[in-house]
Structures are given as C-alpha cells and as structure tokens.
Specification:
By secondary structure, the protein is α/β, with parallel strands linked by helices. The protein is 43% helix and 22% strand. Helix 2 (61-70) links the parallel strand 3 and strand 4 (76-82). The mean pLDDT is 82.
Length: 132
C-alpha cells in the first residue's frame, strides 16, 4: 500500500496519513476517506497529519484538497500537512501556506489547514493550542 494511517498517541488525538510511495489521486482520496472514517468513530476532536514522503501526483492540488476538505467529519480539529522535502522548500512552503489561506476563505467552516516542515512542528502547534 502506498500510504499508512496510524494514531500517533495513545489518547487517539492525532491521526497521521503517511504517503510512503507515489500515489494516484484515487489513492489520495482513498487515504483521506479512510482517515475520515477513523476520525468519525472517535468520540472527541482529532487532529489529522498528512505527511507526504513521496510527492503527490501531478494535477491541480487545490481542487483535490478542496474536494477532500468538503467531506470532513465535524470532529476533525486541524489538518497539518507536511510536504515532501524538496529543493527550494522555503519558497514552496510559502506558496503552500498561501494556498491554505485561500482554502480557508473558500470553506471557512472547515478545519484549518496548517503547512509545517516536520512532525515536531505539529507537536509544537498542538502543545501551544493546549497551553492557551
């Protein structure tokens, strides 16, 4: 399988989808659908981490992420995206963060999307949110 879905903590507050091999958009949707079903069965709010280690397929990512966001369970808290590390990562991450704000404007009632560079950064965001 080109992706793995696993809980990152024993409390089941953080669920990760990890793309470990190149995926098609169909496999991308399968992974999101599977993760959404897992989140839906939790009886509390859940953070979702999408970690891309292999690179997403070619095509209009905005359209695909928008479609995936439209079907979110109501208990999905935040979505963290860790893109594949590539040359010019700083520029690419800045563009992705802009992309995230566009999605929030299109679908303001859905979970916020936060682009980060590592799992450690995800934990910092979550710890900071719990502290406030």
């Amino acid at each position: 399988m080109a992706f793995e879905v696993e809980w990152l903590d024993k409390e089941q507050l953080i669920l990760r989808i990890r793309f470990i091999d190149h995926v098609s958009w169909s496999e991308f949707y399968d992974s999101i659908h599977y993760a959404h079903n897992v989140v839906l069965h939790a009886h509390h709010r859940v953070n979702l981490v999408i970690e891309d280690q292999a690179g997403l397929p070619d095509g209009n990512s905005l359209m695909h992420f928008r479609t995936a966001m439209a079907n979110q369970p109501t208990n999905l808290k935040q979505v963290f995206i860790i893109p594949k590390t590539e040359p010019n990562q700083t520029i690419k991450l800045a563009l992705m963060k802009r992309f995230s704000s566009i999605l929030q404007n299109i679908m303001p009632s859905k979970s916020s999307i936060i682009f980060v560079t590592s799992l450690a950064e995800v934990y910092r965001y979550i710890d900071k949110a719990h502290a406030t």
